[in-house]
């Protein structure tokens, strides 16, 4: 998966007087937790304050990735101030974790709180976070991973009470969240509780076992929600209207799932703020003809590693000139008549003759992908032609 998400600012709604995280508590107060408190204005900081997403892939990234943008924005908002990151891993009991957090973080502002390997109260019982355990602290980013979370962890016991004015990013990855993502249906993973965090801008439920996104999941989202990460699950179904009510949605990551089809009605119409869509590493064979209609801000699309066989004028022509990044590598695109619409865009019609230089991509575009042409040469079955260098004589079209 290419991480193309351009987080437009986890701290963009901070007031000018918004101060940096408080200094670290003492080691005695922290117990099994650790704390880093660094000057984020220094580029050689020892703490990776930009690690919003945790992935193992090493594939190329398009420009303006989350990591770069988030780091820059944090520095701008804090204006050279300090960044506090607290990590609590493998507490002996959940009660011990609760006591440490309540005591060590009492009346403190923390930029990022990470908890992992949280034990359940009883064996074979799923984990819920302690009741109101953060009420007397203020957290900007909360991350939990490698924990067997209950599907109602977001609201059961009001674990995020007190964070209405501060929490801007919430991650729960590798937490064995299984089945359907709904608002609060019995036996599912709930999004109930997110609506009580109006300043929340990003949610990351990646690396779980979600199979279905129900239309109710984001029907009452936080006002400022703009980034949704659902990659590396087992999604087969995303119901129509699932993201229609996320008014300010900018970035959606649905990569590394089991999707065979998508519909335009997943998103609002128009989707005025949608900038980035990642559907890579799925099983898509075709896109709806209206899929990119009414997406005036769309700049980045990743459809690599799917099963697309053609790129017809619809849906592509309406969005092609506004894209800055497109990755469609690893598909099975044919060099056929469906690509005729692209020639005049790449180069004026009279320059598509075989004797002229190959056309060039539009200025500022990074287009990655090719089509296959059947070869007449013995021993060779096809030839690959980059989409950005496509010419009329390369198309199998009479």
Protein described:
With 398 residues, this protein is of the alpha/beta class. The chain is 10% helix and 20% strand. The protein is built from five helices and 18 strands. It has helices at 27-30, 66-78, 94-104, 313-320, 343-346; strands at 33-39, 82-89, 109-116, 138-145, 169-173, 178-182, 189-190, 202-204, 209-213, 227-229, 237-238, 251-253, 276-278, 300-302, 325-327, 366-368, 370-374, 382-386. It has a twelve-stranded mixed sheet with strand order 1-2-3-4-5-8-10-12-13-14-15-16, with no helix packed on it. The radius of gyration is 24 Å and the shape is elongated.
Give the overall pLDDT as a whole number: 85
Helix content: 10-25%
What is the succession of H and E elements?
HEHEHEEEEEEEEEEEEHEHEEE
**How many helical stretches?**
5
What is the quaternary state of this protein?
single chain
Measure the end-to-end span: 37 Å
User: Low-confidence stretches at least 5 residues in length (pLDDT < 50)?
Assistant: 1-17, 43-73
What's the arrangement of strands in the largest beta sheet? 1-2-3-4-5-8-10-12-13-14-15-16
Shape by Cα distribution? elongated
Region (Disordered): 354-377
Signal peptide: 1-20
InterPro entries: Leu-rich_rpt, Leu-rich_rpt_typical-subtyp, LRR_dom_sf, SLRP
Pfam families: LRR_8
Give a quick set of tags describing it.
signal, LRR_dom_sf, repeat, single chain, disordered N terminus, 4-stranded parallel β-sheet, alpha/beta, 12-stranded mixed β-sheet, 398 residues, Leu-rich_rpt
């Amino acid at each position: 998966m290419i991480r193309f998400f351009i987080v437009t600012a986890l701290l963009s709604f901070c007031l000018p007087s918004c101060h940096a995280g408080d200094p670290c508590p003492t080691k005695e107060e922290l117990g099994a937790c650790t704390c880093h408190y660094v000057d984020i204005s220094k580029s050689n900081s020892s703490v990776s304050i930009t690690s919003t997403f945790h992935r193992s892939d090493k594939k190329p990234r398009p420009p303006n990735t989350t990591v770069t943008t988030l780091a820059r924005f944090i520095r701008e908002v804090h204006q050279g101030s300090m960044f506090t990151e607290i990590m609590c891993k493998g507490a002996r009991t959940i009660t011990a974790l609760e006591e440490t957090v309540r005591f060590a973080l009492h009346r403190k502002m923390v930029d990022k709180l990470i908890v992992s390997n949280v034990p359940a109260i009883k064996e074979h019982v799923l984990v819920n976070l302690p009741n109101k355990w953060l009420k007397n602290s203020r957290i900007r980013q909360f991350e939990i991973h490698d924990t067997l979370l209950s599907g109602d962890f977001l609201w059961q016991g009001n674990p995020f009470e007190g964070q209405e004015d501060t929490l801007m990013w919430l991650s729960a990855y590798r937490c064995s969240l299984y089945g359907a993502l709904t608002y609060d249906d019995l036996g599912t993973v709930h999004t109930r509780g997110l609506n009580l965090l109006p300043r929340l801008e990003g949610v990351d439920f990646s690396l779980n076992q979600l199979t279905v996104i129900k239309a109710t999941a984001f029907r009452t989202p936080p006002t400022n929600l703009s980034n949704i990460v659902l990659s590396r699950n087992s999604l087969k179904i995303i119901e129509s209207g699932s993201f229609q009510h996320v008014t300010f949605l900018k970035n959606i990551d649905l990569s590394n799932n089991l999707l065979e089809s998508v519909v335009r009605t997943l998103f609002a119409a128009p989707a005025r703020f949608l900038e980035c869509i990642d559907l890579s590493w799925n099983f898509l064979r075709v896109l709806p003809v209206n899929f990119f209609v009414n997406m005036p801000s769309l700049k980045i699309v990743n459809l690599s590693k799917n099963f697309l066989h053609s790129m017809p004028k619809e849906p592509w022509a309406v969005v092609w000139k506004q894209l800055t990044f497109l990755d469609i590598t690893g598909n099975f695109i044919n060099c056929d008549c469906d690509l005729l619409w692209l020639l005049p865009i790449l180069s004026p019609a009279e320059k598509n003759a075989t004797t002229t230089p190959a056309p060039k991509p539009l200025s500022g575009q990074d287009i990655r992908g090719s089509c296959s042409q059947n070869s007449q040469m013995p021993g060779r079955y096809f030839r690959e032609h980059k989409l950005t260098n496509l010419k009329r004589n390369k198309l199998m079209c009479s």
